[in-house]
Amino acid sequence: MNNKIIAGSVLTSALLLSALSHTTQAHAFEKSINHTVYNIEQEMDSVINGPEQLPHESLADAAAIGESRAIHNLTFTLTKVKAAQEEDASLPDDIVTVYYTVKNTSAAPYYAGQSATIYYQGKTADAYALSSDKSAMIQPGDTAEVSQSFRLNPEIKQFDVEVGPLFDINGQKALYKVSEH
After folding, report:
1. In this structure, is the dihedral angle defined by the CA atoms of residues 86, 148, 60 and 174, taken in order, positive or negative?
2. Which 3 state secondary structure label does DSSP give 58?
3. What is the pLDDT of residue 21?
4. With DSSP H G I counted as helix, E B as strand and the rest as coil, what are the percentages for the chain, rounded to 5?
5. Concatenated DSSP letters for 70-107?
6. Averaged in consecutive runs of 10 residues, what is the pLDDT profile of the chain (181 residues)?
């Protein structure tokens, strides 16, 4: 947005507010600036965060930690979600790590890892690579535990974790509801 247009809008709004509400022009100007700044912040949030993000599966179908979900020839089980500081106290307090197992029941090897997503309050958490995160090439009939880390405000206590095949044109995923981590 053009700065001259913003300045003109703020000034016009301030003058109208002061005239209509019998407040001082300074007070009306401050209210108008605050309102304009708020609108700009909201617009920037939508640009930065993009549209609201929702999991592929219905929340009504969400599994609990420890439950398994079969997708094609793979079985996914979210085993735990931990604050990364539990493993390494030097890490920031806004890092969480999700651990899940993948069992390969297909006839071909499968690469597992980096296929989780955390959803919270209509947003997705940013991935945060840790050297302790694990991926694995899983041979037919084998199971492996993999892990992936994310940045998530520690005040957020409820969120959804979605895991599934790394490449799946059908978009099938297993959704888990996490209440505490």
Report:
1. negative
2. coil
3. 60
4. 30, 30, 40
5. EETTEEEEEEEEEEGGGT-TTS-TTEEEEEEEEEE-SS
6. 59 60 62 59 55 56 90 94 91 94 95 93 92 95 97 92 82 86 62
